[in-house]
């Protein structure tokens, strides 16, 4: 029997794309746009047991990791700025409002940091909004989430449809606002910015029986007359064109460039450096800040390959925006970028 098809969204929030019916679900599973994507376990078996990494020796010899500088002074201050904490974690401050994206602050059984965090986890206080793009464990870590909730009693979580039960299982009662794609979060007029939940081409799973039951997505922040786009985890797909068509050129884009080999395993989940450059160009991004590389060993490419490749792309004139490659913890004065 075919699964029942429904379209869902948060009816209490504004939908900014005209005529959008909401997110499509096949039974209880969210789709990537119109199509249901189901990761194949056979690909995991093929990758781990049947495929030899042709770059195995090169990867073993590549001990590169991004440089790290301490950002504690920024976290304890009030100045506007942007800080990369590693992987897909960023702190963004604008007009006294502090946003934290996809924080993973600790090692776990399967995730070991290749470089230190640029601050003590206890320094992450005064967070107004925690933005969670999806539930994969390299973007949502339970220990990190519990610590942040304890340290930030007024913090609100902004995330996708279906995430509240997951988060309340970790920290009961934490304020969570869920959105579907193309919806604007309600900040109750208290913040001098706007935040939207937008599409991404990805999937969800944290347990054995929850495949695609929680929505994934990306974020757009409008602050100080700039558009900042956080691409989260996504393969290359048509949503980048849709976002540019809806909002016009973005000023700053944060796009993933790592975890792309082998392609048969990763191509439906992440962008490689060339695809990230293409996405930035489609978005007409004035500035590009790469992420999702250098912190965790998730795939077969050598550690330094993603950023070297993207720098080569930029040097060859194939990236229309200005490339920024910050150290982990380096404070970027994004409001001053033209």
Automatic annotation (TrEMBL):
GO terms for cellular component: cytoplasm
Coiled coil: none
Matches recorded under Pfam families: Lactamase_B_2
GO MF annotations, alphabetized: N-acylphosphatidylethanolamine-specific phospholipase D activity; zinc ion binding
Name of the protein this chain belongs to: Metallo-beta-lactamase domain-containing protein
Lineage: superkingdom: Bacteria
Domain Metallo-beta-lactamase: 99-293
């Amino acid at each position: 029997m075919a699964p029942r098809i429904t379209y869902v969204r948060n009816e209490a929030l504004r939908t900014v794309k005209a005529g959008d019916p909401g997110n499509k679900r096949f039974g209880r599973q969210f789709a990537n746009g119109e199509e249901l994507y189901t990761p194949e376990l056979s690909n995991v078996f093929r990758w781990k047991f049947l495929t030899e990494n042709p770059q195995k020796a090169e990867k073993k010899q590549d001990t590169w990791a991004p440089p790290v500088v301490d950002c504690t002074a920024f976290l304890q201050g009030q100045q506007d700025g942007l800080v990369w904490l590693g992987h897909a974690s960023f702190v963004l401050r604008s007009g006294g409002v502090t946003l934290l994206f996809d924080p993973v602050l600790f090692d776990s059984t399967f995730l070991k940091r290749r470089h230190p965090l640029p601050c003590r986890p206890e320094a992450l206080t005064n967070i107004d909004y925690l933005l969670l793009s999806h539930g994969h464990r390299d973007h949502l870590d339970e220990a990190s989430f519990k610590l942040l909730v304890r340290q930030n009693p007024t913090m609100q979580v902004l995330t996708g449809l279906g995430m509240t039960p997951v988060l309340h299982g970790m920290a009961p009662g934490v304020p969570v606002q869920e959105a579907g794609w193309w919806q604007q979060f309600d900040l109750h007029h208290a913040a001098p910015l706007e935040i939207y939940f937008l599409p991404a081409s990805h999937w969800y799973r944290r347990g054995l029986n929850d495949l695609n039951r929680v929505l994934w997505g990306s974020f757009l922040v409008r602050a100080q007359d700039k558009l900042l786009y956080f691409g989260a985890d996504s393969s290359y797909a048509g949503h980048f064109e849709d976002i540019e068509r809806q909002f016009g050129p973005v000023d700053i884009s944060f796009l993933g460039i790592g975890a792309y080999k082998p392609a048969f395993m990763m191509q439906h989940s992440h962008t490689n450096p060339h695809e990230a450059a293409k996405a930035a160009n489609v978005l007409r991004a004035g500035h590009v800040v790469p992420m999702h590389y250098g912190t965790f060993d998730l795939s077969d490419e050598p550690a330094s390959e993603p950023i070297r490749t993207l720098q080569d792309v930029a040097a060859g004139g194939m990236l229309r925006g200005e490339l920024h490659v910050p150290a982990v913890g380096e404070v970027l004065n994004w409001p001053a970028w033209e």
